[in-house]
Batch of 3 targets.
Target 1
Amino acid sequence: MAQTTPNHTVTVSGWAAHDSSGKITPYTFKRRENGVNDVTIKILYCGICHTDLHHVKNEWGITMYPVVPGHEIIGVITKVGSDVKGFKEGDRVGVGCLAASCLDCEYCDAHQENYCEKLQFVYNGIFWDGSITYGGYSQIFVADHRYVVHIPANLAMDAAAPLLCAGITVFSPLKDHGLVETPGKKIGVVGLGGLGHIAVKFGKAFGHHVTVISTSPSKEAEAKDRLGADDFIVSSNPKQLQAAKRSLDFILDTVSAEHALLPIMEMLKVNGTLFIVGAPDKPFQLPAFPLIFGKRSVKGGIIGGMKETQEMMEVCGKYNITSDIELITPDRINEALERLAKNDVRYRFVIDIAATSNN
Ligand code: NAP
Ligand code: ZN
């Protein structure tokens, strides 16, 4: 049932999942009118993140149907509220995962809105006015401007869309660990998917030695030739795992499904950090021995703050980093979700939303 909230008068065409079958169908719904702090965005492109798939299938048990997924949103501003600063009509902008936060806690004050307790997401969230949020698999978006970023002029809009979630999610941990400014470390990336392949590009741009740890031997050549990875370890190969023990300073785990942490932790040097951003539905087993014998840390994080997201965009502009994408029309979203579930994408599906638009 579509929600009815006062001021939600803007009719929007989009695509929604109505149950956990994994299927998306066209869906018309209402968004709020453009408020004083809002910008209205004509969506041109939206990436398909694995988080969308987790939600569509209710794998985390938190989906409020109908869900309109999509948090890698790129488009052009068509309307600007009277209190908005820094944005104007015609600007190329992006919206990621954040729709709202309290704007008043220690984390919001420190530009870490992503850790605000009252954080709300752009879909499957509850906005300040009590409405359920609908994401970017749709033609129009209304965003509070504090959760909008500018897209550097040299980046292609379609290939830049995945930066809004995949990009910032892997940039933030690298930044947090001093790996954006200081080169020469040995970094591992587990899972060469949407997040993982951008992590490899960042790692190389920032001057590190990058090792991919993957379940897919077929990705080795392109990981090295296209993405510039230095080493490639197949996680089912005990010899390669053995040889890589205690070789890495920092590992970013982007895997979407259950997997063993033990061999990954053993690849860390003493004092190394395993940073988990992948979000499997089942809990990890955390073995004590590789922790205590290597003084290693395991931690996690969610996306990044808005200031950092803008900074990441500028860095991508500087190094010309975008996602490798497969551009699809909206009638192929279901096919894309099926292929994403089967790990059959290089490396991000992006929906060409405007391809179906009437104007
Ligand atoms: P993706 O494109 O599907 O990539 C995930 C990769 O994990 C796959 O390409 C595959 O790489 C590997 N993988 C898949 N199944 C596996 C299995 N059973 N065992 C081991 N490895 C497996 O997904 P994504 O969009 O990058 O997202 C990855 C995860 O991050 C998802 O869980 C998503 O929800 C989460 N996420 C978290 C945040 C955050 O803020 N923390 C933000 C965005 C996404 P190989 O073929 O190389 O093994
Ligand atoms: Zn995402």
Target 2
Amino acid sequence: MGKRIVVVGTQWGDEGKGKITDYLAAGADVVVRSQGGNNAGHTIHFNHQKFALHFIPSGVFFPKTKNVMANGMVIEPNAFFQELDDLAARGVTGFRLFVSDRAHVIMPYHLDLDVLWETFKGPLAVGTTKKGIGPCYADKASRNGIRVGDLLDPEALALRLRASLSVTNPTLMSFGREPYDFDVLYQKYRALGDRLRPFVTDTSVLLNDEIDKGSRILFEGAQGIMLCLDHGTYPYVTSSSPTAASVPVNCGISPMAITDVVGVTKAYSTRVGGGAFPTEFEDAIAQGIRERGHEYGTTTGRPRRIGWIDAVVLRHSRRVSGVTDLAIMLLDVLTGVPELKICIAYDLDGTLLKEVPGNYLHFSRCRPVYITLPGWSEDLTGIRSWHELPPNAKRYLETIEQQTGLKIAIFSVGPDRSQTIDIKQFFE
Ligand code: IMP
């Protein structure tokens, strides 16, 4: 039986999931994106070129791999085609890509509403990527959405667009905006539907066939568990669930189908956008980490906030997402930092917490309780096995294992594929 591995981010996104997925994709028959949209940005280094993928699964660099964008995703067709064109312009063509007929379409008014909601919330804004993700998922939940399959059927598109505009236009006008014209949008999205048609299929049927055949399948998580709509730092979260538990519903497969869950973490922490971040610090060391780790958003270019690694967050992610193995990214970035901190608990107004509190105001008052370990000065970028690691780096990683109860299966010491070192083989 081929394994069905889920890769999840265990922090606030940007953990390096794209690199791990790309690494594991070499052994996979199918790579699947199951949630989110182009709020995600996965950086992949291939043939000495750097690629930033937003919608497209990371398996596109392997011609035989099937790439699936499943029903739980939200897709903005113009940005989707732009990404395909960008890949083609750089010689990445001929890959196999399938888009679910049940994925939801990000419409232009979703982009407008994302900006308007953020603007009107003022200081309470979430700090979204402004890609229309939240309004699109909100329309899905309130039964006002348009699905990819609707774009292929003139009658379905007319019905769905009419229903959607009947609630969206009054909302836009209440914000002082012009309403959208039905005919203009209808013609535009019919044409986009025709362009999408060759990719569109029932991806649940496709994936279940692959499972029955014993194919090796990789589910590529987007964002991180702390951005989960249910288990993250609500309301400073995204609008879908990046947990492994969301994969079956977002793909139309059995929950029993998943065999492994690889939790990806940075050797430190980062966060973009608003929201509490207990281990955040800003000084020359943080700035050094930001520069060496290129900690600027792939999607928005915003500088990422920097923090120490947080074992409370990693334990939370392990629990809510059933993480079975840990992949530690960007270990080389910590070279030269004299002392490294690991947060092992929080102090909330004098009470010691071992878990992430559900109340956001409590979470924002949590002060980190650290253990401090000596750093290392050796360059790690040439290391290719666990045994070559300097003693202080080993000690750092072993302490993370102890604090999280998870074994490190993979660690990464640089952007190249050869700098990803696996201790455990996933796809044999
Ligand atoms: P949205 O997903 O655009 O609605 O943004 C909601 C929150 O999730 C914001 O804080 C974003 O910065 C954050 N976010 C969404 N996608 C990603 C991602 O792929 N990496 C990191 N942060 C993300």
Target 3
Amino acid sequence: MTTNLRVAVVGAGRMGADHITRLHSRIHGAEVAAVVDVDLARAQAAIEGMEGAVALDSADEAFALGDINAVLIATPGFLHEEILYQALERDLPILCEKPLTPDATSAWKIVEAEQRLGHKRIQVGFMRRYDAEYARLGQWIQGGELGELLMLHCAHRNPDTPPGFTNEMLITDSVVHEFDVIRFLTGEEITSVQVRLGKATRHAPQGQHDPQHVLIETTSGVLADVEIYGNARFGYEVSTVASFEDGIVSIGADSGPYLRRAGRWGGQITPSFVERFGPAYDVEVQAWVDAAQRGEVGGPTAWDGYATAACCEAGLEAQKSGNKVKVQLNAKPNLYN
Ligand code: ISE
């Protein structure tokens, strides 16, 4: 395919709107053809100034246009499943924001539906894989020059959580990123998850126990601990310290420019994931478009969506019980090898 991908973006909330701007202004080989949102005014606002794009309030209408040839799904996770099936039925390239679906059973059904097509069509929006520092850490792990990776210490801190963000979502919406990136960095599956609840902040909304300490183990025994802190107030931070046999690597601490002025020194903290991972989202969406133009999927697949959903399921059980819970995974289909 040499013409632009005509993309229907479903969901014009925070992430959807960000992707719409990105597709319109920075991504080559694609254009926004339609924006779908139940809030039609929000869809209309998102396409302002975009010639040729239409705002609609249902995905059916977008598919009925007939000239849509790719779909970017950015609705809340519990709405992904139906749109995924609609797009798979039409054999369209899909970029689906994480999570693929909220639970392992429905994610596995999506994996099965894609297998019936006989080729991959779904890329899942795990943007950390496209972050320059994570990529560099991955090279150190795979390259072996620092010896074996032993442990990962991860901090995932948000300034606050949006209305309706539940205790469970600290795992399914936030720690899901660590599940994916740990699998990506180590090239291994996660075997168990444990969640410990300690002293909680008074700034957490009712029903949320915040922060939580999540312990993750991979097949070779790499241990990762995650501080998931949803209401940390100071700003956004996703950082990791990796302990190797022959060195320690730190990534993600905001670095420079540092200003020294009037007897003080300091720098800036990124306010949210939109800024912290802005460049990674650009690379991610461009990689999706480029692969789609070749009829391929270049990034995290539906299998990754399913495997992380299985980790989330174990995480939710661990959150309730405090026990170390095994991750149950079906055998990996050949399509994803
Ligand atoms: C949000 O949905 C994201 O995907 C962000 O990357 C993550 O840091 C945040 O915790 C999630 O709620």
